Hints:
The longest helix is centred in the N-terminal third of the chain and has 17 residues, at 3-19. Helix content is 27%, strand content 28%. The protein is built from nine helices and 15 strands. It is α+β, with helices and mostly antiparallel strands.
Amino acid sequence: xxxxxxxxxxxxxxxxxxxxxxxxxxxxxxxxxxxxxxxxxxxxxxxxxxxxxxxxxxxxxxxxxxxxxxxxxxxxxxxxxxxxxxxxxxxxxxxxxxxxxxxxxxxxxxxxxxxxxxxxxxxxxxxxxxxxxxxxxxxxxxxxxxxxxxxxxxxxxxxxxxxxxxxxxxxxxxxxxxxxxxxxxxxxxxxxxxxxxxxxxxxxxxxxxxxxxxxxxxxxxxxxxxxxxxxxxxxxxxxxxxxxxxxxxxxxxxxxxxxxxxxxxxxxxxxxxxxxxxxxxxxxxxxxxxxxxxxxxxxxxxxxxxxxxxxxxxxxxxxxxxxxxxxxxxxxxxxxxxxxxxxxxxxxxxxxxxxxxxxxx
Length: 361
């Protein structure tokens, strides 16, 4: 094909794409990466048994999570009724509550993401954390006649300019498992006025995408399509969080008891770029560090710059403790502690509580 013909084809494709309708009601992810060689999880019996993380009646730390898997009673893997899986909602957040032990859910959840077009890049079975790679939702591309006719021949000419990745976190409960799915997105934007260069930068998480994948996971676990749609559409978001100052320390005040506040704060941390290294539910503490959500790692992005102290370079990830403290049955507070467990009143702490509060609304 000569140059003139190539440009003519490109012009025709662009013209038809402009007239097409986006199929926004579909999900069709395609990973651009190759499957990594996943390491076999270490012998979990060798994990440290630090008493700091011992939680009576079942816990969600690395040690007690895996102990719970080993000791959990056998439950049926096939759904006999919808009562085995349900969806909880608070604000814009949703999660699944499943009456099965986590060891029976890990492989089906992994299969679910791979069947959805993703590669698994992180598997921390001892912590109950699984993360996909960055992938593009090809359903957002224009379904024009040229693409429909020529298929893969012109597939590489199309791009949505958006990438998504998802983190799945499982927490064991006395009656089964809770599953949280959090979304993180990137978008490609021009970095120069001449529009000849682009960079990837974070875009807001999408609660609707999270809900859709939770709904699809319900179907994977045995709930019918019709039932999953009814469950996912139930309820309405209610604003439950606000930033306040208590004794000179910035906090998030949540109009919910500890149990729901604990779940929601964990999901907010997953959404906003913090890596939960461990968690002590009895003490209400998440041990976190921050990792900028950049797929090409060439630019720290907005949240990466949050921890830059005038040097022009992003410092090494800082470690924090996020403390969730219940105050009766209908109120909780969230505060930031430094890596040593001391109250943090710095500007960083103020920014962190604001990020958490914004996600909880």
